[in-house]
Amino acid sequence: ELLSLRNQKGFQPYRGPSWISNIKAKDGVGSVSTDSGDWNVFYLFLHDMKFDENCKKCPKTVEIIEKYVPRQYHHTFFSAVSPNTHIMKHNGPTNKKLRIHLPLVGIEGSRLRVGKETRYQEAGKCYVFDDSFEHEAWHDGSSTRIILICDMWHPDLSNEEVKFLNLIQKAKMKFEKNISEHDPEKDNFYSIIDMSRDILKSNDWWTVNEKEFAEMKKKSPKELEEATKKAEEESQTN
Question: How far apart are CA 30 and CA 192, in angstroms?
Answer without folding.
Answer: 6
